[in-house]
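Render this sequence as a predicted structure.
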Amino acid sequence: MKPYLYALGAVLCWASLPAATGSGLEGLSVTELLFFSFVPAALYLTAQEMIISRRRAIPWPGLKLTALGMAGIFGYHALYYLALDHAPLVEGAILTTTWSFWIVVLSSILDKKRLSPPVLAVALAGLAGAGLVVSGGQSLQFEARYLPGYLMALGCGLIWSSFSVALSRLKPTRDYMPAFTVLAALFSTLVYAASVPQVLPPAGALFSALYLGLVPLGLSFTLWNRAVTAGNMTLIGYLSYLTPPLAVLLAALVRGAAVTPHAVIGMIVILAAAFVGRRMS
C-alpha cells in the first residue's frame, strides 16, 4: 500500500508543475529556470538525505545509474521547460502526460513479453480521460508552428517513462535521487554561467523557480523513487493519470478557475481506468 501512497504524493506535487513552469517562463529563460529550480532542489534533497541517514554525505551511484539519472532528471526537465516554452500550455501539458501511458505499455511488455489488448484499452481510456480534463472538452488546435514544442513534449513522455521503468527494473539499494539532482544542478549551473546572465530576474519568476525546485523537483523525486522501486509499475502508471485532473482542481483553488463538467467526467474515466488497471495487475 505504501508505494501507491508515495505515488499519489508525487502526483500531487506534479499537479502544480505546468502552472509553476508557465509562471517561471514569464520572467526567466529556459536556462535560467533550470538553474534557479535545480539548485534549490539539490540543496533540499541533499539536506534531507543527510538528516534522514545521519551521514555527512549522500550515496553516489555507479556509471550506469549516473547516466540514467542524468537522462531522466536533467533531460526530462530541460525538455519539459523547452516544450512549454515553444507550445501552448494546455496542449503541451497534455502531450507531456503521455509518460503515464508509456509506463503502462513498457511495464506490460516487459512483464508479459507482449502488450495485451485489455491493457492497451485501459491505458488509452485513462489517457483519453486526462485529455478530456485538461482540454475542457474543447477540440485541441495542433498548429504547425508549434510542432517543435509538441515533439519535445512527446519526447518528455518517452524519457520519463523509460527512466521510471528502468529504475524500477534495476531496483537500486539506495536512494540516488539526491545525487541525480546534484548532478543536474551542476550541469545547469555550467549552462547558466556560459550564458553570461546580466541581471537578476523578477522576484515573482524566482519564487516560481524556487517552488519548482522544492516541490515538483524536490519532494516529488523522493516520493516517486520510493514508489517505483517497491510498487507495481503498471498500477503506478494508471495512478499517474490523476495528475491532469488534480492540476485542474489546484488551478480552481489557487486561481479561481471554474471546473467544467468535462473535468468531472474525465476524473471519473481516470479513476475507473486506475481501478480496472489494479484488477488486471
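Summary. The CA atoms of residues 87 and 145 lie 9 Å apart. The mean pLDDT is 83.
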